[in-house]
Automatic annotation (TrEMBL):
It comes from Acanthaster planci. InterPro entries: Ankyrin_rpt-contain_sf (IPR036770). This is Uncharacterized protein LOC110991107. It comes from the Eukaryota.
Amino acid sequence: MYRRHIHERLLIAVEQGDLPNVQLAVQQGANINEIPWGMESVLMRAIRCRHSLVAEYLIKQGVDLGYHYEKTSSPRGPTRPMQETARDYAEFYDLPDIVELIDRKTGHFR
């Protein structure tokens, strides 16, 4: 199976919250640390779509929890530059179990 096809399968499964197909794509070699949406990671997309089980699986598979991007604008207009992480997403989208899991994995407790 072509790498691109496997990665596309991963992206679709993440957006749909389809854990079995996320697992299959990972088993077939999909890179969970690739940044497919410009700045948003696969984990960030799972969190934004509120797919906690998918997010938990990605974290347990070793997704890069240190990834961040510079956010310079928002729907409300320009903002001061700031970094956003998957943990920030989990906090914003009210997924306390994911926040806690990220904190445990990174050794940072807030």
